[in-house]
Design a protein that fits this description.
Length: 434
């Protein structure tokens, strides 16, 4: 495909206008100034995309999600965290089959593609259902089941073990779309012996790690009382961070935690919408960055966000940090974009994507800036995390394949997905009311 006469944010975060970008197969093959007319380009090329008034960027990497939680979007609003989880979410999730998870995942994937996301890092259960949705849709994902258990739990006898072993085999058949990860749900839902067993397993199997870290003050303080150390120190001591790790939230990390996280090369993932909605608090991503920690952005599950809009998430992250630090030039557009693209790609271990450069994978997103709320456009780059939202995405491409364009999905039958999501909802509600 030739993206003709388009604006883009290239390597180094620089915005360029009037560019031609070519993709062939799964790769970006050339980027250069546009010096022909659209009519001329269409005369010699088969697949030409008119980039007038549009911005091309690397697609988003949503670095922490629970994609099937689209099924629980809006279920149990206006409850405190404990009631929301124990009275609504956990009983609902206990009824979900692998097939239910598949339909919820397809809805979440459709929403992500519609918002310019090309890859996500997920933690859930019955993850073979997610795998099926990922491969059918053509999006990329790093998938894991979040391990929980007490002292009596034997790792190799758990559903977690079965699913994780299966996912490693499945991933090999996915043409690079899926990467199998290891995952611990959280410090407060697992015993130390299990954390150590998981760390050993991840190292032996060369798996990346995904974990919730210091999301709430209660979790953080109780760990200090129980173990005499912060969750970050506790995990580091048990070997959890000995493989490349992404830790979600990290709101209450303190003191030497910052050095542990940097020295262990742990990537942190920021999800301000979820943190605000649940009333957890706010992470200090300026401090993360200033400690040379890799910053990424995610949406969390649709139960606590409630959308999967990465543009909104990055804009909110930017505005919150600028407001808290009273510094309107705290982050450039290029830096914010790196949080949500290249940094996420590197956190997933995908070195060949997340940048608009020849030789990188064609995992791309086009933002249409012709809508009223962009007018008049002075600068396409700085209009991204100020004026845009998910509904401005015109095209999403993964490995050179167009998966979403102008309101239509090329791999997902969205009406069938929505019909099934309502079927699952009604079946579960009927059971929960018995
Ligand atoms: Zn989460």
């Amino acid at each position: 495909m030739l993206f003709h006469n388009i604006s883009l944010i290239g390597a180094g975060g620089l915005t360029k206008t009037n560019m031609n970008v070519r993709t062939e197969g799964v790769w970006i093959t050339s980027i250069g100034p546009c010096n022909n007319s659209l009519a001329e380009a269409r005369r010699v090329e088969k697949d030409v995309f008119d980039g007038t008034g549009k911005l091309l960027i690397p697609g988003f990497f949503n670095n922490h999600s629970h994609v099937p939680m689209t099924l629980t979007r809006g279920y149990g609003e206006e409850l405190a965290l404990y009631d929301w989880l124990y009275k609504r979410i956990f009983p609902f999730e206990a009824l979900l089959t692998e097939d239910d998870v598949y339909w919820g995942s397809l809805l979440g994937i459709a929403e992500m593609l519609r918002g310019g996301t090309v890859s996500f890092t997920d933690m859930y259960m019955r993850i073979q259902g997610i795998f099926r949705a990922v491969v059918e849709s053509g999006i990329k994902a790093s998938l894991s089941n979040g391990l929980t258990g007490d002292e009596s739990t034997v790792l190799r006898e758990t559903a977690w073990y079965r699913e994780t072993e299966q996912m490693q085999r499945d991933a090999k058949t996915s043409h690079g779309l899926v990467i199998a990860n290891a995952s611990l749900h959280a410090q407060y839902t697992s015993a130390p012996s299990l954390v150590r067993a998981l760390a050993d397993y991840a190292r032996e199997n060369e798996l990346r790690m995904h974990v919730h870290l210091s999301e709430t003050e209660t979790e953080h303080e109780e760990c200090k009382e129980r173990h005499g150390k912060t969750p970050a120190r506790y995990f580091a001591d048990l070997g959890l961070f000995d493989v490349p790790t992404t830790a979600a939230h990290a709101i209450f990390i303190e003191g030497e935690d910052y050095d542990i996280i940097r020295d262990k090369g742990v990537t942190l993932c920021h999800m301000p919408s979820s943190n605000l909605k649940i009333g957890s608090g706010l992470a200090d991503i300026k401090k993360w960055r200033d400690h040379s920690i890799r910053v990424t952005v995610g949406t969390d599950g649709a139960g606590s966000n409630n959308n999967l809009d990465m543009i909104e998430e990055v804009t909110l992250a930017s505005y919150l940090a600028k407001g808290i630090h009273r510094d309107p030039i705290l982050f450039t557009t290029g830096e914010l974009l790196a949080f949500a693209t290249r940094n996420g790609a590197l956190a997933q271990g995908r070195d060949d994507t997340g940048l608009l450069e020849p030789g990188f994978r064609a995992d791309l997103t086009v933002i249409d800036m012709n809508a009223l709320h962009f007018q008049p456009v002075y600068d396409y780059g700085t209009s991204l995390f100020t004026n845009a939202n998910a509904s401005d995405v015109a095209l999403t491409m993964v490995d050179g394949r167009v998966l979403y364009r102008d309101g239509a999905f090329t791999t997902i039958d969205i009406e069938k997905v929505i019909w099934n999501v309502y079927r699952v909802r009604d079946e579960k509600l009927a059971k929960l009311r018995v």
